[in-house]
Amino acid sequence: MAGTTGRLSVSTLVATVFLSVAAAPLLAAPAHALGNNRAVNRSCGTNYVSSGHNGTAGEGHSWAQTTRQSGNCAGRLSAALERGDGYWSTRVYGSNGSAYATARFGTKAKHGLHWGCDACNVTRS
């Protein structure tokens, strides 16, 4: 009986290690966040950040939009896009109500980039 328990434990251990090693690449893959649309609360108000891609992955363009929902920030909003390799498109400055950026990278952008005003930290969508 002790021998059977020992083999069961070893086989269970082998199966667990195999599944852990096989699943590691799936868990480590970076999330594709383009389109993670949501409201973002900032110190001077709330902005809605949205992004997406029009067309196919190799054609069309990616876009990012920052829109004021509430608050008293008098500064201008801005938006840009980030490729998978970390390159950022030109930051587009809008009004205190909205900013819209678009870019063609040959693939879908990885993130939309959003600023609530010139000095705000960037938010990714």
Describe this structure in words.
By secondary structure, the protein is an alpha+beta fold. Helix content is 22%, strand content 37%. The strands form two sheets. A four-stranded antiparallel sheet has the order 1-2-3-6, with no helix packed on it. The chain has a four-stranded antiparallel sheet with strand order 5-4-7-8, with no helix packed on it. A hairpin with a 2-residue loop joins strand 1 (38-42) and strand 2 (45-54). Mean pLDDT is 79; it is low at 12-32.
Low-pLDDT sequence parts = 12-32
Number of helices: 1
Largest sheet: 4 strands, antiparallel
Which percent band covers the strand fraction?
35-45%
Roughly what percent helix? 10-25%
Strand order of the largest sheet: 1-2-3-6
The overall pLDDT, averaged over residues, is 79
Compute the gyration radius: what is it? 22 Å
List the helices and strands in order: HEEEEEEEE
Compute the separation of the termini in Å: 57 Å
- General form: elongated
What structural category do the secondary elements indicate? alpha+beta
The total of beta strands comes to 8
List the keywords.
37% strand; alpha+beta; 4-stranded antiparallel beta sheet; 125 residues; single chain; 8 strands
List the SSEs and their pairings.
Blueprint: H1 2-28, E1 38-42, E2 45-54, E3 61-71, E4 78-82, E5 92-93, E6 98-103, E7 111-115, E8 123-124
Antiparallel strand pairs: 1-2, 2-3, 3-6, 4-5, 4-7, 7-8
Q: What would you say about this model in short?
A:
The chain is α+β, with helices and mostly antiparallel strands. Helices cover 22% and strands 37% of the residues.
